[in-house]
Write a structure and sequence with these properties.
By secondary structure, this protein is an alpha+beta fold. Helix content is 42%, strand content 30%.
Amino acid sequence: MSVVAAREMAADHGLDLVEVSPNADPPVCKILDYGKFKYEAQKKANVARKKQKTIDLKEIKMRPNIDTHDYDVKMRSIFKFIAEGDKVKVTLRFRGREMAHQELGMNVLNRVRADVDEVAKIEQFPKMEGRMMTMVMGPR
């Protein structure tokens, strides 16, 4: 149908002629209320934005000589964060003479890595940054 005839038909019904697909051959148009169309499109965009999940980076702080119960409590938190879809940054802080025994910290991070191997993947392997050793994990 010609553009002029379509505009007249839309005007008779008190609606607008809206081009839906300009790249099609021939272009596709609809007769509808443009204000209502924009309002519904905005509502759809708001619902989509509300439903999307942002990935947060949660941090768990440990010490090289962490006790077993404290380690288990921290591991429960790590499993909970990963189950929620968040990334987890495990930080080991060295104080004083602990800097001379960095292999103890590496052992703790390797133990963490072995414990979460089936539910998380390592995104950043353990590395020293000043007095802290960090490792980043994300859900599989």
